[in-house]
Design brief:
Elements (H helix, E strand, L loop, with lengths): L1 H16 L6 H16 L3 H22 L8 H41 L2 H7 L4 H38 L5 H9 L5 H26 L5 H31 L1
Helix pairs in contact: 1-6, 2-6, 3-4, 3-6, 4-6, 4-7, 4-8, 4-9, 6-7, 6-8, 8-9
């Protein structure tokens, strides 16, 4: 019963979020501020994680594919498809759920307990639309760029491991990443990332918006936002993979 209550309140909250904003000029200003806050500020950690994971995947593939019947370029082909199909969309979104989700939940939760949201309501402003819709659309706008950056950096990390660790020759690595390339894999990852971006921001905003209490409750809301976002990302990963690749 409690679960159904939260599901119903979530959809009512989403209806409020996507109602018409009061002032479009202020909304667009907030939108670009959120692009910088949620998107651009996440670029560094995405580059770092993707670089090391791409290198690690290449090394692991090299040590697991030991058969002389399997050509070396299969290592880089596997690294490329792993980055494109799963890592650069799903795993990166799990990382962002921890960074972006907790930040949004704590920000909106702090505004709730400090009565800033109540003040917006008194002024006749729809706080759900004013605070949340720019975040959702800004993150959905920017996350495809993060996914594409992750793909390039992850593949480049694999090439660096080939150069400096020597698990595969750079020539074979280049051959593998060019072989049997399917452009739809990029489209597939971007579609998934858009769903994940919506889930991360909407769930985190919901958790922060309905906080009651003090700083302790804000911390708990941030934790719930991250946990629920991760669970739903993994659930939708299964659903979207079945729908888009079957």
């Amino acid at each position: 019963m409690k679960t159904m209550f939260h599901i119903g309140r979530y959809f009512v909250f989403m209806f409020q979020v996507f109602s018409k904003p009061e002032k479009h000029k202020i909304w667009f200003r907030q939108f670009f501020r959120e692009v910088q806050s949620l998107g651009l500020s996440s670029t560094g950690i995405i580059i770092l994680v993707s670089l090391f994971i791409g290198a690690a995947i290449t090394i692991q593939m090299a040590y697991n594919i030991t058969s002389p019947l399997v050509p070396d370029y299969v290592i880089s082909l596997t690294t490329r498809d792993t980055m494109l199909l799963e890592f650069s969309s799903t795993i990166i979104s799990l990382v962002l759920a921890g960074k972006v989700g907790s930040n949004i939940a704590s920000e909106i939760g702090t505004m709730r307990v400090s009565e800033q949201i109540d003040a917006l309501e008194i002024m006749g402003i729809n706080p759900a639309s004013f605070l949340v819709s720019p975040k959702i659309l800004a993150f959905m706008f920017f996350i495809p760029f993060l996914v594409i950056i992750s793909m390039f950096v992850g593949i480049a990390g694999g090439w660096l491991s080939a150069v400096f660790v020597g698990v595969i020759s750079p020539q074979d690595y280049i051959t593998g990443i060019q072989l049997y390339f399917i452009p739809y894999y990029v489209t597939y990852s971007i579609i998934k990332s858009l769903f994940y971006a919506f889930l991360i921001v909407s769930i985190s905003s919901y958790q922060g918006y309905y906080v009651s209490g003090g700083a302790l409750e804000v911390g708990r809301a941030s934790t719930r936002a991250v946990v629920y976002s991760i669970v739903l990302i993994l659930t939708f990963d299964l659903i979207l993979t079945q729908l888009l690749l079957s």
